[in-house]
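Researcher: We plan to redesign the surface later, but first we want a full-length starting point. C-alpha coordinates attached.
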Protein backbone atom coordinates (compact mmCIF):
# COMPACT_ATOMS: atom_id res chain seq x y z
CA UNK A 1 0.00 0.00 0.00
CA UNK A 2 1.34 3.42 -0.90
CA UNK A 3 4.03 1.96 -3.18
CA UNK A 4 2.00 0.30 -5.93
CA UNK A 5 -0.67 2.64 -7.33
CA UNK A 6 -2.93 -0.23 -8.44
CA UNK A 7 -2.93 -1.85 -5.02
CA UNK A 8 -3.36 1.49 -3.25
CA UNK A 9 -6.33 2.39 -5.45
CA UNK A 10 -8.04 -1.01 -5.03
CA UNK A 11 -7.53 -0.98 -1.26
CA UNK A 12 -9.12 2.46 -1.10
CA UNK A 13 -11.94 1.55 -3.51
CA UNK A 14 -13.43 -1.51 -1.75
CA UNK A 15 -14.23 -2.74 1.75
CA UNK A 16 -12.39 -5.96 2.66
CA UNK A 17 -13.24 -8.55 5.28
CA UNK A 18 -10.26 -10.84 5.76
CA UNK A 19 -10.69 -14.09 7.67
CA UNK A 20 -7.26 -15.73 7.86
CA UNK A 21 -8.78 -18.85 9.41
CA UNK A 22 -12.50 -19.44 9.03
CA UNK A 23 -12.53 -22.85 10.73
CA UNK A 24 -10.32 -22.45 13.79
CA UNK A 25 -11.04 -25.75 15.55
CA UNK A 26 -10.84 -27.76 12.31
CA UNK A 27 -7.59 -26.02 11.38
CA UNK A 28 -6.03 -26.84 14.74
CA UNK A 29 -7.08 -30.49 14.29
CA UNK A 30 -5.19 -30.66 10.98
CA UNK A 31 -1.95 -29.88 12.81
CA UNK A 32 -2.31 -32.68 15.33
CA UNK A 33 -4.53 -35.46 13.96
CA UNK A 34 -5.73 -35.43 10.35
CA UNK A 35 -3.94 -33.17 7.85
CA UNK A 36 -6.83 -33.29 5.37
CA UNK A 37 -9.68 -32.67 7.83
CA UNK A 38 -12.00 -30.02 6.39
CA UNK A 39 -14.98 -29.90 8.77
CA UNK A 40 -15.40 -28.11 12.08
CA UNK A 41 -14.98 -30.15 15.26
CA UNK A 42 -18.45 -29.38 16.65
CA UNK A 43 -20.35 -32.24 18.27
CA UNK A 44 -23.37 -33.69 16.49
CA UNK A 45 -26.19 -35.96 17.58
CA UNK A 46 -24.50 -38.87 15.79
CA UNK A 47 -21.84 -40.65 17.89
CA UNK A 48 -18.29 -40.36 16.48
CA UNK A 49 -19.50 -37.99 13.75
CA UNK A 50 -17.93 -34.60 14.31
CA UNK A 51 -18.37 -31.30 12.61
CA UNK A 52 -19.94 -29.71 9.61
CA UNK A 53 -18.23 -28.52 6.45
CA UNK A 54 -18.23 -24.73 6.91
CA UNK A 55 -18.22 -24.23 3.14
CA UNK A 56 -21.23 -26.50 2.49
CA UNK A 57 -23.52 -25.67 5.39
CA UNK A 58 -25.13 -22.37 4.43
CA UNK A 59 -28.88 -21.87 4.45
CA UNK A 60 -29.39 -21.34 0.74
CA UNK A 61 -30.74 -24.19 -1.40
CA UNK A 62 -28.86 -26.64 0.80
CA UNK A 63 -28.92 -30.25 -0.42
CA UNK A 64 -30.45 -29.29 -3.77
CA UNK A 65 -29.19 -29.70 -7.30
CA UNK A 66 -29.25 -26.56 -9.43
CA UNK A 67 -31.67 -27.35 -12.24
CA UNK A 68 -32.68 -24.01 -13.75
CA UNK A 69 -31.08 -21.77 -16.32
CA UNK A 70 -27.84 -19.98 -15.54
CA UNK A 71 -28.33 -16.80 -13.50
CA UNK A 72 -28.96 -13.69 -15.55
CA UNK A 73 -25.62 -12.28 -14.38
CA UNK A 74 -23.68 -15.39 -15.47
CA UNK A 75 -21.93 -13.67 -18.40
CA UNK A 76 -20.73 -10.75 -16.30
CA UNK A 77 -19.51 -13.20 -13.61
CA UNK A 78 -17.84 -15.45 -16.18
CA UNK A 79 -16.12 -12.52 -17.89
CA UNK A 80 -14.63 -11.60 -14.51
CA UNK A 81 -13.32 -15.12 -14.00
CA UNK A 82 -11.74 -15.02 -17.46
CA UNK A 83 -9.90 -11.82 -16.50
CA UNK A 84 -8.66 -13.51 -13.33
CA UNK A 85 -7.45 -16.75 -14.94
CA UNK A 86 -5.67 -14.86 -17.71
CA UNK A 87 -3.81 -12.82 -15.09
CA UNK A 88 -3.03 -16.00 -13.12
CA UNK A 89 -1.63 -17.71 -16.21
CA UNK A 90 0.55 -14.71 -17.05
CA UNK A 91 2.53 -15.11 -13.80
CA UNK A 92 3.74 -18.73 -13.95
CA UNK A 93 1.79 -20.25 -16.84
CA UNK A 94 -0.61 -22.14 -14.58
CA UNK A 95 -3.86 -22.91 -16.38
CA UNK A 96 -7.09 -22.64 -14.42
CA UNK A 97 -10.58 -23.68 -15.45
CA UNK A 98 -13.45 -21.28 -15.13
CA UNK A 99 -17.20 -21.67 -15.04
CA UNK A 100 -19.79 -22.61 -12.49
CA UNK A 101 -18.67 -24.84 -9.63
CA UNK A 102 -20.89 -27.77 -10.65
CA UNK A 103 -19.18 -27.94 -14.04
CA UNK A 104 -15.58 -27.25 -13.01
CA UNK A 105 -15.36 -29.19 -9.73
CA UNK A 106 -18.54 -31.00 -8.64
CA UNK A 107 -22.12 -30.32 -7.56
CA UNK A 108 -22.04 -28.81 -4.08
CA UNK A 109 -25.09 -26.81 -3.08
CA UNK A 110 -25.43 -24.76 0.07
CA UNK A 111 -21.92 -23.38 -0.28
CA UNK A 112 -20.56 -20.05 0.81
CA UNK A 113 -20.66 -18.89 -2.82
CA UNK A 114 -24.35 -19.87 -3.11
CA UNK A 115 -25.28 -17.99 0.05
CA UNK A 116 -23.29 -14.87 -0.83
CA UNK A 117 -24.85 -14.73 -4.29
CA UNK A 118 -28.40 -15.76 -3.39
CA UNK A 119 -28.95 -14.27 0.06
CA UNK A 120 -26.53 -11.37 0.31
CA UNK A 121 -27.15 -10.49 -3.37
CA UNK A 122 -23.47 -10.20 -4.23
CA UNK A 123 -23.27 -10.68 -8.00
CA UNK A 124 -19.52 -11.23 -8.06
CA UNK A 125 -19.31 -14.40 -6.00
CA UNK A 126 -16.52 -16.85 -6.83
CA UNK A 127 -14.96 -20.06 -5.57
CA UNK A 128 -11.23 -20.56 -6.11
CA UNK A 129 -9.27 -23.78 -5.63
CA UNK A 130 -5.54 -24.41 -5.29
CA UNK A 131 -3.35 -24.61 -8.39
CA UNK A 132 -2.75 -28.37 -8.28
CA UNK A 133 -4.04 -30.46 -11.18
CA UNK A 134 -4.43 -33.74 -9.35
CA UNK A 135 -0.95 -34.73 -8.23
CA UNK A 136 -0.82 -33.14 -4.76
CA UNK A 137 -4.41 -32.11 -4.00
CA UNK A 138 -4.57 -29.91 -0.92
CA UNK A 139 -1.00 -30.80 0.06
CA UNK A 140 0.93 -28.47 -2.21
CA UNK A 141 4.70 -28.87 -1.93
CA UNK A 142 6.47 -26.03 -0.18
CA UNK A 143 8.02 -24.82 -3.45
CA UNK A 144 4.52 -24.14 -4.84
CA UNK A 145 3.27 -22.00 -1.96
CA UNK A 146 4.86 -18.69 -3.00
CA UNK A 147 4.09 -19.11 -6.72
CA UNK A 148 0.49 -19.94 -5.78
CA UNK A 149 0.29 -16.73 -3.75
CA UNK A 150 1.88 -14.66 -6.53
CA UNK A 151 -0.55 -15.84 -9.19
CA UNK A 152 -3.52 -15.60 -6.81
CA UNK A 153 -2.65 -11.96 -6.12
CA UNK A 154 -2.43 -11.25 -9.86
CA UNK A 155 -5.79 -12.92 -10.46
CA UNK A 156 -7.42 -11.09 -7.57
CA UNK A 157 -6.13 -7.71 -8.75
CA UNK A 158 -7.41 -8.37 -12.28
CA UNK A 159 -10.79 -9.46 -10.93
CA UNK A 160 -11.08 -6.40 -8.67
CA UNK A 161 -10.23 -4.10 -11.57
CA UNK A 162 -12.88 -5.83 -13.68
CA UNK A 163 -15.50 -5.56 -10.92
CA UNK A 164 -14.67 -1.89 -10.41
CA UNK A 165 -15.31 -1.21 -14.11
CA UNK A 166 -18.63 -3.06 -13.97
CA UNK A 167 -19.86 -1.43 -10.77
CA UNK A 168 -18.59 2.12 -11.21
CA UNK A 169 -18.73 2.47 -15.01
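Model: Full-length starting sequence:
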Amino acid sequence: YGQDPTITHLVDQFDYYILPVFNVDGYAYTWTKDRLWRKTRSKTSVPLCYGADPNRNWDYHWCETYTTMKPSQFKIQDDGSIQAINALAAVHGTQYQHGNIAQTIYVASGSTVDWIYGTANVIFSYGVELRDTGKYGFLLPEDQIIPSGEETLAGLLALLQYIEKQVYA
